[in-house]
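[job 0417] fold request received: Exonuclease V subunit beta
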Amino acid sequence: MKARSEVHAHYTLDTNWRSAPGMVNSVNKLFSQTDDAFMFREIPFIPVKSAGKNQALRFVFKGETQPAMKMWLMEGESCGVGDYQSTMAQVCAAQIRDWLQAGQRGEALLMNGDDARPVRASDISVLVRSRQEAAQVRDALTLLEIPSVYLSNRDSVLKLWKRRRCFGCCRR
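[job 0417] inference complete; emitting structure tokens
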């Protein structure tokens, strides 16, 4: 928070150039529900618009246009965090398996207007909060014989900003 308060100019992008409008709208709606979406009021969520070129993007699964964002809740009695994360990793992996198999049959399609192509593994990414969650998702995918790639930048956003700021001072 100190780093943010020391900077007077804050730069943001007002357009998401890569995502479908449904995803952009879903993220905007989800994170606009509270003033402390990122745990601190000092770090605001700033809604963005979707790019005009992406207005016709959508995902169709077994003939039905899918919602851009889907959330799962675990049924039954409450459980510990580890059990919950493990179950959600398994649910996530099963959903990915279903999409990939349907893509091979031409039943899971990425649409751009009238143009369509089957979903491929390279179209799918899973965002997690920690290495532990990443390992759980990777393990669940491995059990279903789905290869995966793990990519991590362990630096926090603030550490990266401080490093760039320091580097900028050194270059002057």
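[job 0417] notes: The radius of gyration is 19 Å. The chain has a mean pLDDT of 86.
[job 0417] exit 0
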